[in-house]
Specification:
- This protein has 13 helices and eight strands.
- With 329 residues, the chain is of the alpha/beta class.
């Protein structure tokens, strides 16, 4: 007996989930769907899938777990399409970057006895230097040495949350349980702000008269700094995330503006000592963060250590959900 996981959205995250589960075929059957058939075929060729399903409702009918890794601006539509085809006891695990809004949408869309849990993969720091995008950036160890933040609406079935925890272990990540409101604040800082900052940098440079000459000398630093806004479909996703998480978006933008104004004042006043100290402090803080992410010694900060679930554990979670559904409880 195996659990069927249907992966919807076969970019870096979705395909990496399939690759990470490749060695657990005794536990999991991997079915994949992507809006781009070519992307789905690519993931299959990479060994991330046991089966491709080009029809979305068919892809989820036998699914025990639906792992939704599409851009945020597409995920609500996908939920609406698949809702009536999900079998009782199925668990939707979504990677939406806006937790409160996504949870509210799931509550409105999903029928009774279909469960929703939100996941936030933080990714292996070894992937930070990978410039590839989409399925080409997928690796089997993408989630190792990192956290998987699990958030769920109040009242979510405990077996569904445990199932998400077990899946996290199979992927090689460490589970951490977060509050949806807190996560919206954290994601505004770590995901949304870099995207908005990149957009602002492009607007402040490429639309100016001097860009005609500047574009000829812009190089690696400019490319890296503006990369977050140059990821195609993610542009619309980031815009919707900012509007649905507007209070946090405005807060982190205000923090950025204050930091820029501080630097501007130091430069305009020719305060070399303060400027160099501030830049050095920023460099040290980044280096400290990167070292901490690479070490991932989160156990010392009271994060639980994850043990790989046994086949009995993993299958048992799913059986527990089915039994609960069958008893009407």
């Amino acid at each position: 007996m195996t659990v069927q996981i249907t992966l919807i959205g076969l970019g870096q995250v979705g395909t990496s989930v399939g690759l990470a589960l490749k060695d657990h075929k005794d536990l999991v059957r991997r079915v994949g769907h992507d809006r781009d058939p070519g992307t789905a075929r690519q993931a299959e060729k990479m060994g991330a899938l046991d089966q491709v399903s080009f029809n979305l409702p068919s892809a989820v009918r036998q699914a025990d777990i639906v792992f939704l890794a599409e851009p945020f601006n597409q995920s609500r539509e996908t939920l609406q399409i698949i809702a009536q085809d999900l079998k009782a006891g199925a668990v939707v695990m979504d990677t939406a970057p806006v937790k409160v809004s996504a949870s509210e949408s799931a509550a409105q869309i999903l029928p009774a006895e279909r469960y929703y849990v939100s996941l936030t993969p933080t990714l292996n720091p070894l992937s930070f230097q990978n410039t590839a995008q989409g399925a080409e950036a997928a690796t089997a160890d993408l989630f190792k040495n990192s956290l998987m933040v699990i958030t769920a609406p109040t009242g979510t079935n405990s077996e569904a949350i445990k199932l998400a925890t077990d899946l996290t272990g199979l992927l090689g990540a460490t589970p951490f349980f977060g509050d949806p409101y807190e996560m919206d604040g954290l994601l505004a800082t770590t995901t949304l702000l870099p995207q908005l900052t990149a957009a602002a940098l492009v607007l402040a440079t490429a639309s100016q008269p001097g860009w005609r000459e500047a574009r000829k000398v812009a190089g690696r630093l400019y490319a890296e700094a503006t990369a977050p806004v140059l990821q195609g479909h993610e542009t619309r996703s980031a815009g919707q995330a900012a509007l649905l998480n507007s209070a946090n978006a405005v807060r982190v933008l205000d923090d950025l503006i204050l930091a820029l104004e501080t630097l501007r004042t130091m430069i305009s006043e020719s305060d070399e000592t303060a400027l160099l100290e501030t830049l050095e402090q920023a460099a040290q803080q980044r280096e400290r963060w990167l070292h901490q992410r690479q070490q991932a010694n989160w156990v010392s900060e009271d994060y639980p250590q994850t043990e790989l679930p046994t086949g009995k554990d993993f299958i048992g979670r799913m059986f527990g959900l089915r039994k609960r559904q069958g008893s009407g409880k």
